[in-house]
Amino acid sequence: MRNNALACLNRQIVAAITRRALHNTYSLGIVPSRSFSTRFSSVHGEKPSAEYAKLRKESLESEFGNALTSRSKSLSMYYSFGPFLALYRAAYISYEVFKLTLGHFFIHDIKKRSAKFCDTLIRLGPFYIKLGQALSTRPDILPSVYRNELAKLQDQIPPFSTKVAIRSIESQLGASISEIFADISPEPVAAASLGQVYKAHLHTGELVAVKVQRPGMSLSLTLDALLFNMIGGQLKRFAKARKDIIVAVNETVRHMFEEIDYILEGQNAERFASLYGFHVSQQEDAYPKERWVKVPKIYWNYTRKAVLTMEWLDGIKLNNDAALKAASLNRKELIDKGLYCSLMQLLEVGFFHADPHPGNLVATKDGTLAYFDFGMMGDIPRHYRVGLIQVLVHFVNRDSLGLANDFLSLGFLPEGVDMQLVSDALKASFGDGTRQSQDFQAIMNQLYDVMYEFNFSLPPDYALVIRALGSLEGTAKTLDPEFKVVESAYPFVIGRLLMDPSPDMRKILRELLIRNDGSVRWNRLERLVAAISEQSSNKSGKDDDDAKKPSSSPLEGNSFDMHAVVAATEDLLKFILSDKAFRVRLFIIRDILKVADIFLQDQVTSCMFDENLEPRFTVESEGHATLKRVVDGLLYFWQAVKLAPDAWTAMIIRMALNPEIHRFYFDIVSALFLHFNRRIPDTLWVCVSRFLHKLVKSKQL
Question: What is the superkingdom listed in this entry's lineage (predicted)?
Fold first, then answer.
């Protein structure tokens, strides 16, 4: 009954404020006649456009296709391969494909089919092994059974002869092996599908790793890529691919040719080191002179297109539990370092390592992380980096319509699709949220299952992003089986939103705190203010010497720039005072009335007449929880203010001089007056009734 009355009164207050706005008397600055027009309406702005994603996708797919076309023109099939070699290779591939097709009619178990498919790729050689590894991360092409089988596919090619490797090194570097190296290991220390690695010493004494490419790899990959067009359709039919597999091959081909260009790999390594080495970076104040990401030095005098000589780094594989314990390395710190570096790559800079599996990411004895193999790298534009953050925020908010719009703007969904249908399907997949997974792969599989019916496809940029995040999660889970990428990345994302003053990031921050209908997520705001205020308690609880020590973990506690926090707060307040945030102000007024109502009835009247001076509600009551949240929020905010009082004071003065804030104050006061003009007489009669009841009871005693 009380709730109905309050709701009715709220409607009256809103109507009164709206009428006053329409008559331009202490106006809120906007006519709200269309604010609640449709369920697609949002206080944050219009729906996104997919035009950028479409142009980006067409550009990259053309680039991927040209990677093969240009090589086929420069390398004549007849003169480079010889007609007999080409015919032999085509016949061998056709024979393997024929066996697959034949087995398709006799093997009905899809798991056995997927295993057969994987074995065939191994027999066909390096091109098909690399292709299988790439397809294992493409849920828009292959079903999950095939992807799970291909995920087990490692570089299962036996090493080639050391004599052949030495001849290749001598041919590339133009000198005998004894003139180049003081010594070299008699056998490779590691072998992969495209090359193998030897351990050697330079004559200057430095220990190096020498990566040698398999002879004829460029010609072999080109030949296989050209011939693939002949049998791609058959593979698609056997594997039950969901879209044209040739398009994915064009993408994979470009990365393959990048991987066999060791000069490009060396350049990638140096660029990666300059960006993420952190010996000179924006993080210097937080982690002074702390370098916990290491990249091997490239020896350019001994590097050519098919030979790469780099610094030898001793490392411990992250799945080697015994070695990590022996070195006394902290697992959580290693995970934090790897996650922080990956998030910097994907969300901050855009240049990222696309395959951080346990073979390419190891721990050194001093606790740093060493990255290897920079052949497969990604470089995504800012639009997609912002899109990643937006997807994460909308997923955490369970904003199905926002998530659907993200998929459209990023190119996951074709134009013309019914966004309400997509939104409803995503909302159904969320359920009640109690069993929502925080595993990246599980989340992506959940989203893929929903989007299959809408003919979705992965944009070329995101194919590598998803591969990188999947590899990161798999590597981290070797250290901590309970590791959750999404949950662990969330604090970094919040810090990124607060630090970046660009309009698109500010919009995402608003979406995090304010729903599309204009209501405020107070619990989310409270947690954010609490996280910011924790810096004060953390710093005050440390000795001066401890405070000067750099943290060995980049995610150990949240580190916010308070000036950036103040700027973000001011931008948020300006948005709330703007014309398009009329609904937000109405919801804020409504919430203020609720809190005031709780305080009046459950605090003032109870404490006035309760003998024990205790509120009559229990700790579990909704009113107490709301009031406690308000008090805690104010305390958290005060802790944050003490971190940078000058910045906060200056911001408060600027906002106090804003005419819009005066109008909003007047609206709040007007709403409180209208509300309590009716509530106070009722409360007064209740107080009198309780007083008389208590008086009669005392006389009876």
Answer: Eukaryota
